[in-house]
Amino acid sequence: MFFVGIDSGTQSTRAILVSGATGRILASAAQTTPLLEGLPPGHKEQNPDDWFRAMMLAIKEVIRKAGIPRGDIRGIGISGQQHGFVPLDEAGRVIRPAKLWCDTSTSAQCERILDRIGGLERCIELTGNGIPAGFTASKILWLKENEPENYRKLKTVLLPHDYLNFRLTGRAVMEWGDASGTALMDVRNRTWRREIIEAIDPDLMNLLPPIIPSWEAAGRLLPDIAAELGLSPDVLVSAGGGDNMMGAIGTGNVRPGIVTASLGTSGTIYACNETPVVDPRGEIAAFCDSTGQWLPLLCVMNVTVSTELTRALFEWNIPRLDAAIAETEPGAGGLTLLPWFEGERTPNVPEGTGVWFGLNSRTMRPANMARAAMEGATMSMNYGLNRLRSLGLKASEIRMIGGGSKSPAWRQIAADVFDAEVVCMADSEGAALGAALQARWSLGREEDQSCSLAELAETWVRVDESTRTAPKQENIRLYRDLQGIQDELSERLRPLFKKHRSFIAD
């Protein structure tokens, strides 16, 4: 039997076809998914129908490439970008484009919700989380306040991967992991939290779908979808999950002791835990995972954003960027980048901007700026990792995924900054592999409830030992000092970012 894993991201949708016996990827395919252009600063939106079209094309292509009997495909699992708000009307049609995880235009709505419930401390008490601008709750209030006509049409609230499940199965549900990133759910008990919901709208509870366990199937393929794909209507569609939750499964992060770091457009670090990990400061997301456990997670919004902007500035390709970093000493001569080009989530500074600190006649060189961009993005992630450590997380080995993990220079910087061994995965499709693995587990549980996801992961998930990178002691001390400078810089500048946002708004 075979399984299809989908990773529906901000820039593209990827599909893989996997052997259910070994976890080997037999074929892969990808389709791009565009962002809407011409929006004001801070607004990031996409059309959900573009995700669906890209997914269907990718599934068809991957099945064609694999050349296996279509009747042997037993399940589909979907990983999707977290936090996006997909509003549906009474007929199940999309009302307007989805506001995405990286949309920071709703910071005022975050503050209003917190004010109505009694502040951040009360919010963490109720849900286990704060309400950063990226989370779904503030997007719903934004729609109510800014597009009341569209809000009156709203009948169902879904997240991106839930919308794709809905299109495949006709069933509107959420699952524990992705639902915990809405800021509407009490992560300790995995239930909707009425106080938060009513702070947005007393009637909103009626618009939220039921939350199902992560091992429960979202449903089976609708007959017309099955016919279009040439598959059986009995094909299972698993609950799926957010990209971080599926990335955890796809890196074997399904039991305590394993830590995953994703270096993509945004950056995340997360670890499986058997009990909720709630940060009283609200900087670490107290998510549920998509296995029935919890996934304390830090998220920064600017990782490859930093290196890509720097690369574009000097019109370099990726090999030239890596070469420039290799010819520059660790620490970039004292040049430090605070890489908040898209605002920031950890710490929660949606008004943040990028700041170069330490520019002088020696450091204002392309190579220094390239290294400082890579180091600054990594230290921004390490700010959150240090917070996770303060809450009890131990990180002796970190499994890396995402585009940034492909760079040997970045792996060494990450090992030195994180003060931990880092290693990449043998399969780069972490989220898609996790989605396929969850589908295999979900089908297995229908036949035998003792089916173990951890045991399946032992067979499916492999690391690439050739990428294992140990920290260098002399660099650990250097980056510890630079981390202190960056942390103090971010602390001192936070009040100025709001003043700057008001200045450019005027």
Unreliable runs, pLDDT <50, ≥5 residues? none
CATH H level, superfamily name of the largest domain: ATPase, nucleotide binding domain
Helical coverage, percent range: 40-55%
Largest sheet report: 7 strands, mixed
CATH topology of the largest domain: Nucleotidyltransferase, domain 5
Q: What Rg is obtained from the alpha carbons, in whole angstroms?
A: 22 Å
The overall average pLDDT, rounded, is 94
In CATH terms, what is the architecture of the largest domain?
2-Layer Sandwich
Shape: globular
Supply the number of structural domains: 3
Number of strands: 24
| Measured distance between first and last alpha carbons | 60 Å
Q: List the total number of helices.
A: 17
Structural class: alpha/beta
Task: Describe, in plain words, how this protein is organized in 3D.
The longest helix is centred in the last third of the chain and has 33 residues, at 473-505. α2 (107-117) crosses α4 and α13 (366-390) packs across α14 (408-418). The protein is α/β, with parallel strands linked by helices and 506 residues long. Strands 1, 2, 3, 5, 13, 14 and 15 form a seven-stranded mixed sheet that branches. β18 and β19 (294-300) form a beta hairpin. The chain has three domains: 2-244, Nucleotidyltransferase, domain 5 (2-Layer Sandwich), CATH 3.30.420.40; 251-300 and 395-469, ATPase, nucleotide binding domain (Nucleotidyltransferase, domain 5, 2-Layer Sandwich), CATH 3.30.420.40; 304-392 and 473-505, Nucleotidyltransferase, domain 5, CATH 3.30.420.40.
